[in-house]
Amino acid sequence: MQIQDIPVIDTDVLVIGGGTAGPMAAVTVKEQDPNLRVILLEKANVKRSGAISMGMDGLNNAVVPGHATPEQYVREITIANDGIVHQPAIMAYAQRSFPMIEKLDSWGVHFQKDETGDYDMKKVHHLGTYVLPMPEGHNVKKILYRRLRRVRVEIENRYQATRLLKDAEGRIAGMVGVNTRTGEPIIIRAKAVIMATGAAGRIGLPTSGYLFGTYENPANSGDGHAMAYHVGADLANLECFQINPLIKDYNGPACAYVTGPLGGYTTNAAGERFIECDYWSGQMMLEFFKELESGSGPVFLKLDHLAEETIQEIETVLHTNERPSRGRFHDGRQTNYRQKMVEMHISEVGFCSGHSASGVWTDETGATTVPGLYGAGDMASVAHSYMLGAFVYGQICGENAAAFARDRAEPQLDEAYIAAELARIRAPLARTDGIPPEQMEYKVRRLVNDYLQPPKVTRKMEIGLERILAVREDVDKLVARDPHELLRALEVQSIIDCAEMAARASLYRTESRWGLYHYRVDFPEQDNAEWFYHSRLFKDANGNMAHGKRPIADYVVELGEEKDAYNRLRVKKAANG
Amino acid sequence: MPLANHKSSVPVIVDEDKCIADKGCRVCIEVCPLDVLWINEETGKAHMKYDECWYCMPCEADCPTDAVKVNIPYLLS
Q: What sequence ranges are listed for the domain 4Fe-4S ferredoxin-type (chain B) (predicted)?
């Protein structure tokens, strides 16, 4: 089959995104049934793409027998996320957490073990023990790549997916995209699609003003969130922004998860602790923000009290893994951990379920609300899932997408929709005059910072939305001089979609929740009577952005007496102190 | 609106004496997540064509001849 002289590529399962969840999903489909055709599509190169391009220094949510139970983990994440979680999905993760660690271990991923050979678990969370260091975690991507080759997954690098396709019955049917180096379009017909497109990390602007100096890998520009929206899938709790405590300007994690178990901690300017626990939650971020803005700010990571061999161990882990250029950044400012505390700040806002809870709605089977479309990793809505959650949900999606594809006939394609999308893709290349993507991106992201960054204020967000919609009016002036600029021009359209979603979702929930993530100054209280729901955002029958409430599924684990633990994160001072 | 040429100092530096891109090597170009390293048509060597860097370092780590150096972008250094 051809559409506009473009051959349509057929597959059983299409996986979009080759970072963490995507390779695991693709391998799982092949493990389920080697006869199923699987294409793994990646905007960069699977060898070095996604959040863990340089590896990872630890598991932040390992549920290891003898150290924690799935029930304890589900309880802790529910409390850390102010009750708004789909517990069956967190439980499905927690139960598969340990088998996945053992699978990765058998593949050659090294986890830290103690002298008895047991996993060397560390306590970072407020209540339980879930952190497992990976001091040699720099080679995770290499190990994943070897598995992809072994089970013969077909890999298409340097293709950006731009829109998902569905058939007349509303089931998923494939995807349209474009080669980022040649500008040539690609059409893939698929019986099932797994999205693993990562966070929406390019919505806000880092304080450095450098567009690509984001916390997230900037290739994760929210294409998946935009595509899911346009194909009619529900997104959930988008107002629960991701905001993380980072090294100022460098914008990488300060890594209290690595340094905490070795004696490092977060302090104010006086070198005093002000939070009980360094685990990233909205409640912790609110205390961090208050300290940052206070007379005892800014905030620092303190290591200068540690022994020389401990500091060397920290340097070895942090300067070779995940964000290894950190050592160079410190050198440039003469920041030696032995003498100087590391200045910290908060990140730009984004959507990322890996650290918070916003994303494309997925249930305990990894399914979105569009039949045949699955989501895993930072783009899907399972709260606080981190790298191990991406692997587990990659696996869950792989199993369920394989089953869905196996029983299905070839989907029908909507040729008129594809033609319109091909025209949208090509338009910026056809113009010789107009607005370059970089300028439009800077403008919309600067608006997000000015108007949507918490503390959120209703009137400001209304103005922000108005201004973002005005930028949207300029999309038909976007000009791209080569295929690379076309990639950026298509990304900026996803960024505008995400910025509008961020504004509307934040306006919809008229309460405060998740600490700083959704701190509304003019609705300062949590309102469980009205808002103990997931918020929904979706495209309605008229093509407009619409909202709704999704009831919270019955808890499978009761919260008990610790239910308010995350509301008591500030270090108490003695009355005479 | 007419377009201007915008200049910026880029963070990734390629040592042209060590780079073997003219002999067909494409490793750094292949692994860059942002696709900002391209062949310089004049020299046949790799260079940073777009100032869109995450200072993530696969280009430097994977280069077979140690020709690539990743610096911290000027705006945040």
A: 10-42, 44-73
